[in-house]
Design goal:
Order of helices and strands: HHHHHEEHHHHHHHHHHHHHHHHHHHHH
Structural class: mainly alpha
Distance between the termini: 110 Å
Number of helices: 26
Helix content: 55-70%
Oligomer: single chain
Radius of gyration: 38 Å
Shape: elongated
Number of strands: 2
Length: 570
Amino acid sequence: MAFISRSPELSARSFTCVENKFITKYMPVLEPLSVKVYLYGLYLSGNSQAFTLEDLAKSLNISEEQVVNCFEYLDEFELVKITCRSPFEVTYLEAENVSGTPKKYKSEKYADFAKSVQAVIKGRMISPNEYREYFYLIEEYGFEQSALLMIINYCVSMKGDDIRLQYIKKVAKSFAAEGATTAKKVDDKLARFTSSTPSLLKIFAAAGISRRPDVDDDALYKKWSNELGFSDDAISATAKYFKTKTVEKLDDALGELYRNKKFDVKEIEFYCKTRNSVHAATVEIAKALGVYMQNTAPYMENYVIPWCDRGYELGTLKTLANYCFMHGKRSFEDMNDFIKELYDQGIIGEKAINSYIEMKNAEDEFLKKVLSACGLSRRIISPDREFLSRWRQWNFSDEMILRAAELSAGKNNPVAYMNGVLSSWRESGIFTPDKIEGYARQAAATKKTVDRGVIERHYAELRQIAEARAERALERALADQTYGAMYKEINSLNIQLAFAESRGDGTEKEIEQRIKDTESAADMRLKELGIDKEDFTPHYNCKICGDTGYDANGRPCKCLKKFIADYING
């Protein structure tokens, strides 16, 4: 009879399959905790529910660090493979095909070292696996035993007797990266850190950080002081005004100040006070635009602060945000383009902006009357505003524009028809209502006019054909994943260039070169696809008027006159 068997009830239940080779070859030599972690992890790997490293640790009533140590131990056997450290991810491998064995260390070689480590770490018993990690650091990184012991002692002094292995490994590897693997070099590095400790304690007090500084903090302090060029007073002022509670947040704050060239204590104080107002304004602008954002910092640095640098006040920016939303400009990018247009026109101050908005609102009210007179009930669109601007540049009064709108009612495209009417009046010098009737009689008598609807349909068809051809060419190109990615990259780089130019941060040439390189690569890809880049642009029949019938000055084009003549002559 078999020593072990399953009841029928158990056999019918779900189970986790464990390979025989794991049981016969590996389980006898593995540390007990590693076996527990392996088996429970194997069970979870077949579970459809989501789980985390924390979940596994809680289930086995051990720390996450212990779980990681066990998986690192199993990785040496090649029973698992650690595929990612952050977040921590593990893939189970077939035990049948593995050949890995962990590196063996002669325990007698490190007997005195092991005793010294346990004497330093008094808060817990050191596991065999942890000792193996220390032996690994000695042999793989070239640490002197006394040097590593000094590092362990330092870590305990910083974190206490419950110090974790992962922290010790992290610190040891940072020392090794700087070549500090001998007792003398470790002592020198710790001495240098000790010299900076008073400064760090002062900075920590300003930041509201209660713990003592460690070597990681010292590395950041050197970065702030030597690389970025901040004084101790400037760093403390930053910690105070930004209300940082961690070194990570302090590092981010100093990075922001560095990018904005704020180094003096008074500059930092003023910047921070202004920044709080800018932050609040950014939130309000986002709400006005209907933009959701998790982090205000990029919007502040890329948009709001450059707007302020151009002379726009925060209150005025809120007004502009409301105006942009009402006119279909509902992103920070759209608002930035609009502000650039205003800036180029010298419209900056609150008074100038309010006058501009009042003028534009008055134009919109008038356009509503024009559309109504045309028999249209739709909302105002951008071409409507462009037409109105053109008509006023032609020196037509509102009365004349409304008369043209009345004549256009019932036409297929009333606004375009209006443009034709006003253009013909302009060419004939008709700028007052009293001359309209005589002009109409003359036109009817000479029979040289053609129904505006015929003209509009003719040119609309020409434009549609040209534009559709260009759109099809672009769509064909964008269907190619390689070119499509390059196209998006070029658009993104152009936006970055605009930001860089507004900030003047010195990255313009680099971005311009990236644009040039990407455009060159995109052109090469188009050649491979057999597509001419010129086809992306509509090729109109008439280069003078662009198939509109009227030149840049609003005068009838030669092609329009020819079309009318041909039409009349049959």
